[in-house]
Amino acid sequence: MYDDRRKRRLSYLGIGFVMVWMVLSSSSWAGAQELENEWVLRYEMEEAGKSYSAPFEISENRTPNPWGAFFRSLAVPGWGHHYIDSDHWRAGQFHLAADVVILAAWFGVNRQAYVVDKNMYSFGRQHSGVDLKQHDRAYELAVGRHRSYDDYIDFLERTRNWDVLEEFPDAVDSQWEWESEEARREYIRMRDRRDDLEKQLPTLAAMLVVNRLASAVGSFSRARSYGQRASLSVEPGPDFNGAQARLTVSF
Fold it and tell me: What whole-number distance in Å separates Cα of residue 203 and Cα of residue 206?
């Protein structure tokens, strides 16, 4: 149960790394596809006996790719805003700072929960004589609610809770007895503290996702509204005969 609890906490971080990897992979695939298209064009022109000249564009203002901004901000909040305009990306700086703060809080809470968890098991083994790491959540609750194993079995018999009584472990190493009432109460405080910390982890993970989505949507919208005033592009003409120029004016 101890290892399962650690795996559950680390799984939130693992999901985040998988998302980043998928975003970076999709960006790499898009770049590779663009390069492949250029090589196909080069091959077709050479087959037609034409000399190849890579298309070029002269623009007064660069128009950023909205999806490029979206995926950048999804991977690293604020990156898309910086990609759009590296001189004016205050909103991106806000998302980046928020991400750093939330990540630091997540690691801090996760570390604190791990320490409290470890101390709780050590304290329970020392003062009750049982290794709590080998048992489930129901067992942890029973150890905290009753002074000893015999007290808990007596409680189950008096309340006629036969199903729980049959399933509850009865091995010698599963029997406990607290040294004092104060020790039992201290164990309960440590267990509740660990549970409260672990409950914060999903909330912090959700905040990371929301911040990334907000940054991605914001950068996507800004890229779409980031108008290009005028651009001149030169590309091969129809059937690769000559060249043609295209002037684009946006308002």
Answer: 5
CA distances from 124 to 15, 146, 199 (A): 33, 13, 22
16 to each of 10, 63, 107, 215, 236, how far by Cα in Å?
Answer: 10, 30, 13, 15, 44
Considering only CA atoms, give the Rg of the chain. 31
Strand, coil or helix: 56 = strand
Q: Distance of CA 196 to CAs 14, 45, 200, Å? A: 22, 67, 7
pLDDT digits (tens, 9 = 90+) for 126-157: 999 988 888 888 889 999 999 998 898 888 88
* Full strand arrangement of the beta sheet holding 56-59: 56-59, 230-236, 243-249
> Measured between alpha carbons, how far is 129 from 114 in angstroms, rounded to an integer?
21
Kindly give the residue spans of alpha helices, DSSP state H, lying in 76-180: 79-84, 90-128, 137-145, 149-158, 162-167
Number of H helices, E strands in the chain: 8, 3
Residues in the chain: 251
Residue 66 neighbours by CB under 8 Å, 6+ apart: 220, 221, 223, 224
Q: What is the pTM of this model?
A: 0.63
C-alpha 141/C-alpha 195 separation (Å) is 12
User: What is the DSSP code (8-state) at residue 177?
Assistant: B
Axis-axis angle for helices 181-225, 137-145 (nearest 10): 140
